[in-house]
Amino acid sequence: MVKLTIDTRTVQVAEATTILEAAEKLGIYIPTLCHHESLKPYGGCRLCVVEITKNGRTDLTTSCTYKVEGGLKVKTDTERIRKVRQLVLELLLAEAPEAQGIKDLAQKMGIKESERLKAREHDLCILCGRCIRACREVVGVTAIDFAERGYVRKVASPFFKSSPDCIACGTCVYICPTGAITMQEVDEGQSAQVPGGNEIAGPARIIDNWKVGLAMKRCKKCGEIIAPEFQLEYLRKKVNLKEDHFDICPICRE
Amino acid sequence: MVNVGALERLKEEGMKSLFPSTTKIMVGMATCGLAAGAHEVWQLLTKEVAKSKTDAVLKKTGCIGLCQHEPLVDIIKPGYPRVTYDKVTPEKVGALLEGAAKGVFKKGIMARIDEEEFLLNGTHRRYSKGTLPSTLRSVVPYRRLPFYKKQMRIALRNCGSIDPENIAEYVAKGGYFSLAQVLREGKPEKVIDRIKASKLRGRGGAGFPTGVKWEVCCSAQGSERYLICNADEGDPGAYMDRSILEGDPHSIVEGMLVAAYAIGATRGYIYVRMEYPLAIERMNLALAQAGKEGLLGKDILGSGFDFEIEVCQGAGAFVCGEETALIQSIEGNWGEPRPRPPFPAVSGLWGKPTVINNVETYANVPVIVAKGARWFNGIGTSKSKGTKVFSLVGKVNNIGLVEVPMGISLKEIVFEIGGGIPQGRKFKAIQTGGPSGGCIPKDKMDLLVDFDQLTKAGSIMGSGGMIVMDDRTCMVDVAKYFLSFLEDESCGKCVPCRVGIRRMREIVEDITSGKGSEEDLDYLQHMAEAIKDGALCGLGKTAPNPVLTTLRYFREEYEAHINDKKCPAGVCKPLITYSIMQKKCTGCGACLKVCPQGAIEGKKKSPHQISVEKCIKCGACFEVCTFDAIIT
What we know:
Chain A has 254 residues and is an alpha+beta fold.
């Protein structure tokens, strides 16, 4: 166990705990954006910066990546911290003015758009990389990644073409903090356009951003839609299940 | 048991090669020489020497520092001083060879070297015997040239004096004996103690104590340890590392071997940017030679110590000079930094404890081993020991590579070593530390150069770039340039760097095109401070420095752009209109000739005029006018 001070309070936590987790334990709020409890620490958005003092030296660091150390003194709300958080949100508000997640966070923290930064007509993506990391770390597929670098960086499927690996699980859609990734369910009897590709007949699922449209599989017993066929095939192979394992839905199987 | 038989043999061979019994001709064949035309000179020399049937030997050498005078050709005739001809063209080769053959020294000798220094064992060997021929007496010795007088060459000890493609010459200069010494002592911890005692600080930028880094790595848990040499030098106008890689690659190999032995590493990587093809070629050759002589690989010099080195090529990303991004790149991942801690010394390449040092740091190591920590820490200031290599570029007379003891003043570097500002213009500022550094103004020129003083002035030591700026440099434009550079090079991982630098650049660009406002300066300051505190890695954290220092020292220039809509230096095109001061114009016609638009009119010997309608503001007339008659 490690003992440290956060703001005025002392807390004892297990080794390898991050400052963010330790603060959560004390109920101290630290804003986050690129962080997600299911993903590895990333440190990209810089919203969760805190001030740490160690061996007489004070520095700013991201609480989501910094592992606690004995005797560490942490401050979670100082002038220096507020300055960084304010700039990060001002920048993001100007980059993605329509992103509700950013607007909500800014409002919660009392930060307004900067008059000096012209708002852009940008898409909703703020490049936090949660979708990429979830796809790689949680789903284990790596259907998408960053393309290009710096300001022109994008999240993309390989060569901006239809992702051949995407299983349309929707994890990226769910984990995106700004709603930048969209998914469509195409009903039976209907059809829809896959971005950059052909029309697909329902029942199907489309992940617009990765230009993927996958046909859904129905349960042989009850006829209900289970999931995209390609996804079930991926899962079956991954855990080495019998060829007909997903022919019947989990409910009918019970 | 350490067997130095191979070293003794190489030393003997190397001495013969360094001081042959026949005439030796050396051509500076580093990138600076090649860019100035050394290859053509080399080719012609090869042909002519073969044709002449003399027994003269032709050798390549690295950069001796006087890049502005390249191509440099040295002639060493037994019994005479080593003489250097500068700015040699193929046309001059014939006369030069004729002179060498007859023992007559022709005009055009820039300087002479009477004795070769063997820094590692503290000896000298004279070239000349007896009295100097009268033609050479008036030739100034290198050490008395203003450019060299205040220099002290430790990291660059062999650059420009040995053939970098010949391991024997390196050994003859005392090379690899430091390795033999530490292997013989058999106490890795003693090596670390020595480096710690020398107070050597990393030459890559941040100046972290090298010995402490090695110690941390050594005591970190791990089944394996790695060693990396960071040769991903990318600051605009900086080429310190390139010159060492090209001119003395074995000094890096030996430094790495000593470090590897100290920390117990078995594998090392040299990460060189692919834009340095010659450095890569010479380094690979050096590694092959060292391997062949039993200085790399298994059971080095019979000591039982194993170490391998591999060259890794960067793929053109400036951020890969940042250590965590560099490690990611070697591992085959995106070249983007990750938060520290953990520091590479604890968890680096493949998650194993890793020491990563800069080229120049390693080049210092064999010297510290040979001369002792006390010798080394006797040089420099209280907290910055030893010397530092700088590439002195920009608006300065002597453009080149210099190595000076820490604690020398900026004034001495610019006005004595650098020889001042060309064309009698006024000095304005010096930019140190690359894009992450800052601009230091005229009234701070007494500043004594070391890690802490430069930081105090708002700049950084960085890897050692120094760009001199004269009164025709616009400081707002300089800030814009560095911001654009960093905007292009930002990896994009963190928000302050990816978006912040872009937005700062846009604001500064507005200012340079007359669209700025007074409030912009406060907002720039706000952004700069938050980015400095909030960005993930060193690139982002230091990116606002050029803006912060120019705002601190040259605020009035920003204000002139904003309030008067004028660029005092006459650089920012949207804010300038060229005109000719009738009083000063002599009607020489120089401007009229260079104007690509035919916008200038006037009779010879009477004042000229510029047509505002036709002028495209290219500045050609401004550059060419020697009477300062063209104003903006």
